[in-house]
Amino acid sequence: MKLVDPPGKAKGKSSAKTEITASPGQSLPQTGRQEIIKKCPINPNLVHYEKAYQTFDWDQARGEVDWFAGGKINAAYNAVDRHMSDGRRNKVALYAIDSRNKLSKLTFQDVYEQSNKLGNALKKLGVEKGDRVFVFLPRVPELYVTTVAIAKIGAIAGPLFSAFGPDALRDRLQDSEATVIITNPELKPKLDSIRKELPDLAYVIVVGGDESKLGEREYSYEALVNAESDKLECERMDPEDPLYLLYTSGTTGKPKGVVHVHNDIIGHHMTTRWVLDLQEDDIYWCTADPGWVTGTVYGIFGPWSNGISVVSYEGRFDADSWYNVIDKLKVTVWYTAPTALRMLMKAGDEAVYRHSLASLRHVLSVGEPLNPEVVRWGMKVYGLPIHDNWWQTETGMQLVANLPCMPVKPGSMGRPLPGVYAAVVNDDGEELPAGELGRLVVKPGWPSMLRSIWRNKEKFDEYFRIPGWYFSGDNAWKDEEGYFWFVGRADDVINTAGHRVGPFEVESALVEHEAVAEAGVIGKPDKERGEIIKAFIVLANGVTASDELIESIREHTKRQLAAHAYPREIEIKDSLPKTRSGKIMRRLLKAWELGLPTGDTSSLEED
Known about the structure:
Blueprint: H1 49-55, H2 75-79, E1 92-97, E2 103-107, H3 108-124, E3 132-136, H4 141-152, E4 156-160, H5 166-176, E5 180-183, H6 188-192, E6 203-206, E7 218-220, H7 221-226, E8 242-248, E9 256-261, H8 264-274, E10 283-286, H9 293-305, E11 309-313, H10 319-329, E12 333-336, H11 338-347, H12 349-353, E13 362-365, H13 372-381, E14 386-390, E15 400-401, E16 415-416, E17 422-425, E18 438-442, E19 452-453, H14 457-463, E20 470-478, E21 484-489, E22 494-496, E23 499-501, H15 503-511, E24 516-526, E25 530-539, H16 547-560, E26 569-572, H17 586-594
Parallel strand pairs: 1-11, 3-4, 3-5, 5-6, 6-7, 10-11, 10-12, 12-13, 13-14, 25-26
Antiparallel strand pairs: 1-2, 8-9, 9-19, 14-15, 15-16, 17-18, 18-20, 20-21, 22-23, 24-25
């Protein structure tokens, strides 16, 4: 990057997450698993699943997106620019409701022009192809525009969840060597507190606020954009050139940067059509923040590639507020998270019946297992089944789904999409028959598969440790009809309210508190959030336990990481179980907490 100066988010109780400790290959009970709901949207985009699964090849989908000469492509061109000539120029691309409940609308023409202006501004700042430009904004229109603009000029977009604290922010910006970040005055103090630790960060662009309060190499978004032309030719990218970089948590070390490429747009486009079933007149609301992969793929690129009107809502979660959004904008397709649905269920049937919701025709869920009880509740109050599906940050698109054209089995993630071969295998990569628990794997080759882990080939290779399979890290089984059923993570990653949280991150933040000497973190089953984070800590010498201290530790972790990543339960211990090499044995902590068998303890430090 060249450094230059510019010119001027029925009452009832849902069941807790099931913990199954069977070994791969062990048969699972089949009772209570075959409930079927057959209602589906009228005239879905994909009508005949079996035929499509047998005949579809990803090469067939290449014609669904636009290409430049020489086999070049740009995902942002497909999401926005091509609609300038296909009759959608004046169609609303984004219905944005801000934190004060004020509605604004951007047409595809608006997004086209605004992203062109920002793209030009970034280029004048010296941003080049391959540079990392991160976006740290709440769900405001500029978040969507900037993501498109970054992709247009061939830079790599790095969406960041607006609730991230300084530690989470620093880890991602340091690892990626980001050169530019776009934020706002409310979030900027988090960045300011770590700015000296970010030598590669050349510019900060601030959306809104007082321009006179900006420091050196800090610029007003509005001033930059207003000074630029609305004409910009998209960079013609190789399909394998990076498009966006998202960080995902693991059991050890800092979050790892998952790299996705412009070729992903093929998978985004087709799965949006098949799974979300989006059609020309739909008003579509994906409640996920673009700081997470669902919000990036199915909140921006997938729906916009199909020319669909998208809804964004900046306000906080509240049952009546969410239902008001659906009624106010006549939302037809709604994609949300199981935790949100469980909270809506907890709010009661009455909250539903205070609203019409007559516009809804298709409801989907993703991010964590969806309880069968919630699916049944959805049928009761919405008159629609909730279609669960499965994918990951690493997969870049939906891979297994309850498609609109197929019966829904409550509790199942569905069947593999056309062009996707998923299986359940043992630890040696050998496929297991129906009804046996094993590792959920996918045969590589789908268009949106991760291409690398940012500067970490060793981590990338772990996903493909047995040739011919992508190992998801999830345990599952499939039934005789090919429906897959999630059982649990094969590692220690915690899935709380749909957010993957690495225990190492939380442990690191905990021990930064002056009162904490050691920390071990586990995921504990929770009826509402799937899992909550529970921490076991050893206090530093001379520190006395108190309720005030526990709250101080909890708040410290929340500030350093994010609101979803703090331990809701903290237990003080005299010592933590460790291996002889000093590694905390989270497996034992979890077994003790849940009353499960402890298994082999021969490596315990005390033995």
